[in-house]
Amino acid sequence: VCAHLLACFWFLNNECIAISDPRIPDIDESVWNECGSHTLTSQYIAAFYWTIATMMAVGYGDISANTDSERAYAIATQVIGAIAFGFIIATVTIIIETIDPEATAKKRRKDELRDYLNERQYSKDLQKRAKKHFSYFQTKTSTFAEMHIVSELSHTLKEVVVYESRADIIPMIKMFRSAVSDQFIVECVLRLKPMLMSYHQSVGNRGDISEEVYFVTKGRMEGLNMRERPPTEEEIKDNGLDIKDGVHPEHKFYDVVIAAIISDGFDVELNDCLNEKPMQLRYRAASVTDVLWLDHESLMYLKHVFPRSAAVLREQAAKQDKLLQVALNSDVKDLTEGLFIHSKVVRNGELKSFSELKVDVLKSLRPANSSKSAKRIGPDSKDGHHGGGLAKAEKQRSRHITHDRQMSIRHQGVSGFLSMEEEEDEEVLLRTWVYNPLADMLVEKEETEEDLWKRRLINPGSPNKLKWDLFIGMLIIISVVTVPLRLGFDVETTPSWDAYDWTTDSFFLIDIIVNFRTCCSDDQQVLHTHTGIIARQYLRGWFGIDFVSTVPLDRILESGLASSSQGLKGLKLIRILRLFRLAKLVKVLNQQSENSEEIIPLDAVAVNLLKLLGSLFFIGHLFGCFFSYISLDNVAIFGDTLNSTAFGISGIGEYEDAYNLDTPYNGVSSWWVRLDLETNHVGSRYLASLYWAFTTMTTVGYGDVTPVTDGERVYASLIMIMGATVFGYIVGSVSGLASNPRGAAARENERTSTLGNYLEEQNIKPALRRLAREQLSFNRSFISVFDEEKILSNFPINIRREMILETHAETIAKISMFSNDVSLITNVMHYLKPAYFSAGQFIYRTSDEGVKGIMFLLEGIAEEVEDKAWASIGQRDRSGPIPTIQKLFSAKDLEEEESSTSKDGEGGDHNKSDKGLHRNIIESGKCFGYQCFVTKESERRAIAYRAFSACSIMQLTERALKAIIERHPVLRDKLNAALKDAIQRQTASDDVLTNQVNRLQKKNSLFHALQTNLMNKDKRSNLANALNRGETVKKVVDEQRARSLGATPLKEEDDGRESEGGGGGGAPASASASASTAP
Q1: Is residue 694 helix, strand or coil?
Q2: Fewer C-beta within 10 Å: the chain N or C terminus?
Q3: Residues 842, 887 contacting (CB under 8 angstroms)
Q4: From start to end of 1-147, where are the E strands?
Q5: Reported confidence tier of residue 608, pLDDT bands at 50, 70, 90
Q6: What does the alpha-carbon distance between residue 541 and residue 545 come to, in Å, rounded to a whole number?
Q7: Which residues are CB-neighbours of 432 under 8 A, at least 6 positions away?
Q8: Counting beta carbons within 10 angstroms of the beta carbon of residue 1072, is it exposed (0 to 12), middle (13 to 18) or buried (19 or more)?
Q9: What average pLDDT does this structure show over 114-119?
Q10: Which is nearest to 860 in space by CA: 845, 839, 876?
Q11: Does the structure show a pLDDT above 90 at 986?
């Protein structure tokens, strides 16, 4: 409307001759360019064309303002156009992002997860499983902040809304059928999270912290009692064990004993999680299983907010626990070789005997890694419960479980822990609907991909289907590029083009057949295998587009209208129907975008950038081809050569004759005729049309290629509106993609710039700024720029634990209290805080308040010195300069203390010193700061810990310890035992210390020499000089130790022997000094 009004007033304001003016025959070419021909329509088109070119900032220059009034009006039009153009781009962006808000929100969350996974650099397998779970999670949960949305409703309306939205879940969960309140059910349902467990995937282990309650909505889980047993001769041989002196504690073997079977909406681990006890069983999926899980924190919230419902749950859980104890105390029966079952088993809240469950349990077993024998095993089959194939498979599974018990992250890395947590077969089971003709109904089963192929059915998620879809996608891209090219430039059909058409159409026809044999999934992600349902779904969906874009309707109609050349020309437009294949291409890209990363590993940002640029070039290609197409009719009527009497020799001269009403456009039939391009030069015409399309879309508008006829001007006006808008949107998207404000790099830059701006605002000294930047850079390797806690909360415990272990594998190996307890590690890592200290900085002092904690030294060397500020607690004069800067820059204090230590303790004898402590060197892998938790304040020594070299530390603060104690009693007990063991191993006796020093290798480092606690300032200087002379550390240390203790130098041991101290090597820090403070 705005452009129409501006066009009308432009014609009123300019000097064009009106249609009724008698001077019409005297119009020349220049007047026609400005005003159009003698018809009202042509004149309106010319005015509208100028208005759009001005508003969209294209400005070809073929129509311009020549008088003062025209120029003033043009300025106003440009201003109005700039505002309108910006408004159009903003509106288009909003429309695109809000046309499907659910899809937009899902894409944003997927992009955030992808960026987080890339930032953490997880393994490909873990990323694949994380994305697979998240896709399933999004199909089962709301994309929006549901908890926040319903919290603004009244409690009655909230209950109704939740019951309405969860109508399929609430009746399914048996726990909700007890005497719990509606309010409890609503709050519980809002906190339930879904996950899909594959066959034999396991969660938890006996003795682990019970962190989640599970509700089986579909499928079945088994509770396994891992019964320890001695290894067999075969296992001893396979694992290379030497059991002359007994089995090592880490090499334990277990029998898999089924103690519980859970299905049909019953709960798992309710008693242990509710009463905060350790897990009694290990659980695994006996089939592909849908599970809803509730985390421990949410359960504790419900327990305290709804005490009446919690009492009902406690009573119900107590009954279940009694039944479980009966089952665990019952005899064990041999089910198959390597798999056992209790004579009494808890089945969905009832105690069942072995004889009642034997057949049912055997049916759930599948031979591992054997697709050919992946059928159900019945009691009467050849593979009965004593059959070789099934028995061997279950025995192999049992051995896999037991062998993994020996894994330790200190020796085997993360993979050992992961194999303990994840026990999946290579065989992938698919949940399918199979038609049963006898019962005339669909029956849900579990089948392998090979089972489907035996019936000539295709799994839509199979790798081969992915490759086929990518191949069809490539053909679609080629097709949608060639169709407008041949149509727009009237490319003649040749035998080569005929062969190409028939080949591509054949492949598209095969694709239609493939789609009729490809299983489709329902809302529950179950595959339909009935061909009638598959065909009905396909006919209702994409068949119409596939049929129209595949069947060569133009050729069929051409053969029937062979006598009419004009009709054949019009029928070529039918080829445009093939552009509907674009919709199929979008469908293929959306369906296979995640799976294609396995075949073509590309960066996600690069893929999105290629999509945007590809879209831009394809749109330009379409615009250019149809710009040529609209000129074909005029060229066919008026010819493809210039009027020689009207143009100069060059063909681009000025018109010499007056405008001729009988010759439209004065002999110029098309824009490319005006450029004197020949008809058979398709390449030159295509390049010129593409050139015009991009100069129009990018609003450059050189003006050398401009529309000539009224039809071309109408088309150009539309392209200026659409093209400039699309280009603006794409440029904005590319800009957002390049900066990626939600990506890891942008978040990190924002964090760094915020810190820099703050330090500059507060006028902080340059040296302190450097330390702050070092601390932030150090934190970056431990703390994600994303909300990691929120992201991990959407993942089940097995994937969440793997993520934590992979992320912090190196850190975990350096923390002495971590051994091989996965539940302890993954829970405590959340509370550890990283810190970085430059050489000379105080790490912790007894006189400090509110910063108590246990420090784990990852890298560097720390030293224990006297805290001189302890004696002046409460007497500090705050009227002068604040002395806290000395914690960072304490070189003067260091020199004074070293001088006094040198005078008082020349020989290294601790008893001769009356000025506090000698330096105790602390190596990486050790912990300190625990003394403040095990001694009274009145008995606490005035000690401080200072970084001798740059130190990387993980802190377990007092506040974190309190949080752990309050969070879960099992976690508290595990942490207490782990800390006690770590401190006791660290504070070894003098005999052990001497033995470790004796085992120092000949070529060792200053790091190990310092930790022997035998050197003061002078001796350290002597050691440095000796090292400069090329002498070995071992020799220098032995000589100094001999002089200090009045003994002979220690004899060297074999070079191949290592220190007993573990990963750090050498002796622990200050054994004698620290022993008194051990708990």
Answers
A1: helix
A2: N
A3: yes
A4: none
A5: confident
A6: 9
A7: 444, 445, 446, 447, 452, 519, 526, 527, 528, 529
A8: middle
A9: 89
A10: 839
A11: no
Q: CB-based burial of residue 633 (10 Å sphere; 0-12 exposed, 13-18 middle, 19+ buried)?
A: middle
Q: Name the pairing type of β-strands 332-336 and 202-203.
A: unpaired
Structure-token pair, residue 815: 């923390």
For residues 864 and 572, give the distance between their C-alpha atoms in angstroms, rounded to a whole number.
89
Contacts of 28 (CB under 8 A, 6+ apart): 655, 657, 658, 659
Distance CA 1072, CA 76 (A): 89
Q: Which residues contact 865 (CB under 8 A, 6 or more apart)?
A: 897, 916, 917, 919, 943, 944, 945, 946
Tokens representing residue 449 in the block: 């991909």
Residue 713: phi, psi to the nearest 5? -70, -40
- DSSP characters for 389-416? HHHHHHHHHHHHHHHGGG--HHHH-HHH
Q: Are 893 and 840 in contact (CB under 8 A)?
A: no
pLDDT above 80 for 1038: no
**Burial category of 241 from C-beta neighbours within 10 Å (exposed 0-12, middle 13-18, buried 19 and up):** middle
What pLDDT, in 10s, does the model give residues 194-245?
999 988 888 988 889 999 999 999 989 999 998 877 777 777 777 666 655 5
925: left (phi over 0), alpha (psi -120 to 50) or beta: left
Q: Is the Cβ–Cβ distance between 189 and 293 less than 8 Å? A: no
| Chain-centre distance for alpha carbon 271 | 34
User: Which of 950, 893, 933, 988 shows the shortest CA–CA distance to 775?
Assistant: 950
**Cα–Cα distance for residue pair 478/508, rounded to 1 Å:** 13
**If you write DSSP's letter for every residue of 309-378 in order, what string do you get?**
HHHHHHHHHHHHHHHHHHHHTS-EEEEETTEEEEEEEEETTEEEEHHHHHHHHHHT---TT-GGG-SPPP
Tell me the residue length of the chain.
1079
Q: Give every CB contact of residue 1000 below 8 A, 6+ residues apart in sequence.
A: 1008, 1009, 1033, 1034, 1037, 1059, 1066
Q: What is the residue type of 531?
A: T
Tokens representing 543? 């068949």
Give the pair of three-digit tokens for residue 508.
């598209």
Say whether 623 sits in a helix, a strand or coil: helix
N- to C-terminal Cα distance for the chain? Answer: 85
The reported pTM is 0.74
Q: Show Cβ contacts of residue 187 under 8 Å, excluding neighbours closer than 6 positions.
A: 301, 302, 305, 306
Kindly state the tokens that stand for 664.
């439209």
- In 3D space, the residue among 128, 133, 101, 100 whose CA is nearest the CA of residue 791 turns out to be 133
> Which one-letter amino acid corresponds to residue 211?
E
User: DSSP string spanning 303-316?
Assistant: HHH-HHHHHHHHHH
Amino acid at 842: F
* Phi, psi torsion values for 267, nearest 5 degrees: -100, 160
Q: How far apart are CA 682 and CA 678, in angstroms?
A: 8
Please tell me the distance from the alpha carbon of residue 756 to that of residue 636, in angstroms, as a whole number. 69
Those residues with Cβ within 8 angstroms of residue 277's Cβ, 6 or more apart along the chain or in another chain: 210, 271, 970
Distance CA 177, CA 192 (A): 17
Nearest alpha-carbon partner for 996 in 948, 1068, 946 = 1068
Question: Under the phi-then-psi rule, with left for phi > 0, alpha for psi from -120 to 50, and beta for the rest, what region is 862?
Answer: beta
Taking CA 78 as the corner, what is the angle to CA 76 and CA 84, rounded to the nearest 5 degrees?
A: 105
Are β-strands 267-268 and 862-866 bridged in parallel, bridged antiparallel, or unpaired?
unpaired
In angstroms and rounded to an integer, the radius of gyration of the C-alpha atoms of the chain is: 40
Query: Higher pLDDT residue, 709 or 872?
Result: 709
Quote the pLDDT of residue 260: 93
Token look-up 């203390």 returns 897
3-state secondary structure at position 724:
helix
**Cα 340 to Cα 957: distance, rounded to the nearest angstrom:** 46
Q: pLDDT > 90: what percent of the chain?
A: 25
Q: Is the Cβ–Cβ distance between 893 and 784 less than 8 Å?
A: no
Under the banding of pLDDT at 50, 70 and 90, the label for residue 366 is low
Is it the case that residue 251 has pLDDT exceeding 90? no
